[in-house]
């Protein structure tokens, strides 16, 4: 099954293009259409679901908008992903994300919906690079910053004028 998701907004151009291609594909296509106005004629569809996990579990391939959450969720599962940036997003930030993930071999970035048939064929044989979540040290950096002498009582700190930080180890 091919699962198509547009996230919480709308991306009617992607939904319409997949609906046009669906009759020529050899498997079912299920589309999450979000707030979109276009209702597919050749695909099963729904607007929203409490979780997309059941759809991912059945999907052989995911075609999705270029949202960070969706892209990472799909490639962390080891699913094949074709990402399509939504040109209606105000700052076109999805292009940066999809370009980076494509350059690392984690997915296929379909830059233009006219190229979607080619991307679907490429996904059949392409070997994707497994995605490994990079280590995150932000929590440790915050803890170290807050423990540094004088940080929370420093007048330049945005929190200093509102309260005094009390570290849990001070509550003995």
Give structural notes.
With 172 residues, the protein is of the alpha/beta class. It folds into 2 domains: 2-125, 3-Layer(aba) Sandwich (Rossmann fold); 138-170, no CATH class. The chain is built from 6 helices and 6 strands, in the order βαββαβαβαβαα. It has a 6-stranded parallel β-sheet, with helices on both faces. Strand 4 (61-65), helix 3 and strand 5 form a beta-alpha-beta unit. The longest helix is centred in the middle third of the chain and has 11 residues, at 93-103. The radius of gyration is 22 Å and the shape is globular. The termini are far apart. The model has no long low-confidence stretch (mean pLDDT 89).
Secondary structure: helix percent: 25-40%
Between the first and last Cα atoms, what is the distance in angstroms?
58 Å
Q: Segments where pLDDT lies below 50 for 5+ residues?
A: none
- The computed structural class is alpha/beta
- CATH homology group of the largest domain: Glycogen Phosphorylase B
Order of helices and strands: EHEEHEHEHEHH
| Strand-residue proportion | 5-15%
How many strands in all? 6
> How many domains is the backbone divided into?
2
Q: What's the number of helices?
A: 6
Taking all residues together, what is the mean pLDDT?
A: 89
The third-level CATH topology of the largest domain is Rossmann fold
Oligomer status: single chain
CATH-derived architecture of the largest domain: 3-Layer(aba) Sandwich
Taking Cα atoms only, what radius of gyration do you get, to the nearest Å? 22 Å
Largest sheet: 6 strands, parallel
What is the global morphology?
globular
């Amino acid at each position: 099954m091919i699962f198509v998701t547009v996230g919480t907004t709308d991306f009617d151009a992607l939904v319409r293009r997949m609906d046009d291609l669906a009759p020529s594909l050899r498997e079912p296509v299920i589309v999450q259409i979000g707030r979109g106005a276009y209702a597919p004629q050749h695909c099963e569809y729904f607007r929203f679901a409490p979780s997309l996990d059941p759809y991912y579990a059945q999907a052989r391939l995911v075609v999705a908008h270029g949202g960070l959450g969706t892209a990472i969720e799909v490639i962390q599962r080891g699913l094949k992903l074709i990402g399509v940036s939504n040109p209606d997003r105000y700052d076109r930030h999805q292009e940066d994300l999809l370009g980076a993930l494509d350059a690392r071999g984690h997915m296929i970035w379909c830059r233009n919906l006219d190229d979607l048939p080619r991307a679907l064929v490429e996904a059949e044989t392409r070997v994707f690079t497994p995605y490994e979540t990079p280590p995150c040290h932000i929590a440790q950096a915050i803890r170290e910053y807050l423990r540094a002498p004088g940080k929370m009582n420093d007048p330049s700190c945005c929190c200093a004028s509102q309260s005094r930080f009390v570290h849990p180890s001070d509550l003995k």
